[in-house]
Design the sequence.
């Protein structure tokens, strides 16, 4: 009898521990911000972001991030520039309506993390490693990431010109637990 | 003559401002976009009045130099300069939270011509065809 109780207690404890350590499914809140700058007057935001974030600070290897940005939601503050950016020369919104990132591996590097995954921009899929941090607060937190994307890697625009070769992205995604 | 020109400038500016505000209202209502935080009504009227006052001073200076040919040169200059200013409307970079910035030039470009239109409309009420005060 005592042995059965002990086994049951052990199982319950294991279940509780595993439940506590399980990655959390986060929902992206509305106040996210995706900013890009390409030197000088070139810069703007993407207004529409969707995706799933399953993340565990203690066990990043079990985490997974899948994000999709709507290319048509780009806004530079200038209509002509928006149309130019959505044209075939740049993001080609008609043919490639989404920018997609799907993580393969997440590792902790000190106080921050690094996510490796496939980035799909302008019809070119390329494996990239991006740094990010997570600041937990209450029932959610905020993911932030700053990185650069090479225009040449994704065949964006013509070489040279007024736009920098490296496009800097600044991403801030507040999330709440589902 | 300068006093009458300045009066024409003020009245033309106010008329152009009123026309601009009416156009802004019609544009915003029909297209469902609101740029009133960027193109503020007070700013629109002040811009129109200032533009027409500058035109008045320009006319006065041209008249000192060109005499009888002032009218034709001034009208050409006023319209050409009005055209030139639309470059600014196309190049304007609006705040990033503004929706549909591509509709902004359609709002402000016609407004750039209202001062010239108001001036040309009201001028006969202030001066006769020989540039003399009525």
Sequence:
């Amino acid at each position: 009898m005592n042995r059965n109780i002990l086994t049951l207690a052990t199982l319950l404890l294991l279940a509780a521990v595993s439940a506590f350590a399980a990655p959390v499914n986060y929902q992206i809140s509305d106040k996210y911000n995706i900013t890009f700058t390409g030197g000088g007057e070139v810069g703007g935001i993407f207004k529409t972001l969707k995706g799933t974030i399953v993340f565990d600070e203690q066990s990043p290897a079990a985490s997974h991030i899948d994000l999709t940005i709507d290319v048509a939601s780009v806004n530079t503050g200038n209509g002509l520039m928006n149309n130019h950016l959505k044209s075939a020369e740049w993001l080609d919104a008609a043919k490639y309506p989404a920018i997609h990132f799907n993580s393969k591996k997440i590792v902790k590097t000190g106080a921050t993390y690094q996510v490796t995954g496939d980035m799909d921009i302008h019809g070119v899929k390329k494996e990239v490693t991006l740094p990010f941090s997570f600041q937990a607060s209450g029932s959610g937190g905020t993911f932030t990431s700053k990185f650069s994307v090479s225009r040449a890697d994704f065949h964006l625009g013509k070489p040279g010109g007024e736009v920098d070769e490296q496009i800097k992205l600044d991403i801030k995604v507040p999330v709440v637990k589902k | 003559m300068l006093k009458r020109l300045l009066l024409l400038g003020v009245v033309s500016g106010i008329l152009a401002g009123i026309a601009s505000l009416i156009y802004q209202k019609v544009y915003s209502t029909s297209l469902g976009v609101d740029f009133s935080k960027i193109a503020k009504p007070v700013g629109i009227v002040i811009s129109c009045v200032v533009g027409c006052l500058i035109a008045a001073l320009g006319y006065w200076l041209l008249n000192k130099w060109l005499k009888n040919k002032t009218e034709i040169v001034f009208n050409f200059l006023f319209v050409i300069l009005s055209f030139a200013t639309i470059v600014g409307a196309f190049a304007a970079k609006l705040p990033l939270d503004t929706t549909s910035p591509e509709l902004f030039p359609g709002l402000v470009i016609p407004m750039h011509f209202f001062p010239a239109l108001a001036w040309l409309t009201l001028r006969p009420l202030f001066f006769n065809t020989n540039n003399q005060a009525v």
Observations:
- Residues 128 and 134 of chain B are 6 Å apart (CA to CA).
- Chain B touches chain A through 15 residues (CB under 8 Å).
- The mean pLDDT of chain B is 91.
